[in-house]
Amino acid sequence: MKIIEIFRCIQGECSLQGEMMAFVRTAGCNLRCAWCDTKYAYKGGRNMPLSRIVAKVRKLRCKWVNITGGEPLIQSEMPALVDALKELDFKVVIFTNGTIDIARLPNVDKFVVDWKLPSAHPKEAFNMVNLNRLSPADELKFVVKDTVDYTVMKDILEGVKIRCKVLVSPALDGKSMKWAKELAEMIAFDNLEVRYSLQIHKVLWGNRRGV
Length: 211
Known about the structure:
- The chain has about 210 residues and is of the alpha/beta class.
- Helix content is about 25%, strand content about 25%.
- The protein contains 6 helices and 9 strands, in the order βββαβαββαβαβαβα.
- Strand 6, helix 3 and strand 7 form a beta-alpha-beta unit.
- The two termini are about 20 Å apart.
């Protein structure tokens, strides 16, 4: 499997925010989102056998493993990696961009599935079959950059049945924290049943590798 980096850090977003985790960042992505904060994961990486990946994760001594990218579900070896981690009693969370069916990974403890909004200019649409795959343990995430995104998100929330927690985060690429505050105020005004999620790893360390 092609790997960009493996490291230990606190989880910066979702309902697991603040948990210490081992992060496995895979290489490659099927999208090119306009505000992507991990463009360095589009290409490159080093080929690592699954045994080596698992060994490095074990050395980090964390209960949780976060598999992210790039887009981790484009890796054909992903089911084998998840199975290997689960055999060692790790809890596994996967962050995925929502375009690929998550059904082939039944052993994952939590999926955080991203529904890309217009500002991302995604090359592929959200895979609607994933709405039926998501369990109450999973989370559906929206990254909102402007009022157009916010309106589209509201229409989605009103138009589809969602069985899991909904996360909403501000996209801060090139924008000040003022937008983060404005988004929180809009959510409160509209009384949306969502969880606001500010990426605390970026607040603490900025947008860089290894966090």
